[in-house]
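Memo to structure team: turn this sequence into structure tokens by end of day. - J.P.
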Amino acid sequence: MITPIRCWLWLRKAPGADPVLVVSNFTPVPRSGYKVPMPHAGKWVERINTDAGWYSGSNTGNRGAVEAHAVEGRHWPAEAELYLPPLSTLFLKFEPE
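Reply from structure team:
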């Protein structure tokens, strides 16, 4: 049996620019505490949330930002827990200090 892909994640990188993580939840079910690997520990600001009220969504999300924490023994050096609204896409941009 093949398990359907419910959430997609990808990282946009450009020379001289901070990375942007894009996360899409293709289900009508919100995902709370969804662990996501990140390339950098630190603050990631929500630049786009398609569930926001001005897009006629339910206006749920991560209150504008998430904090990625350093982890060891994983594929990427950091990890964050996200709230993924139903049927939505988030764009999170790394904000170095």
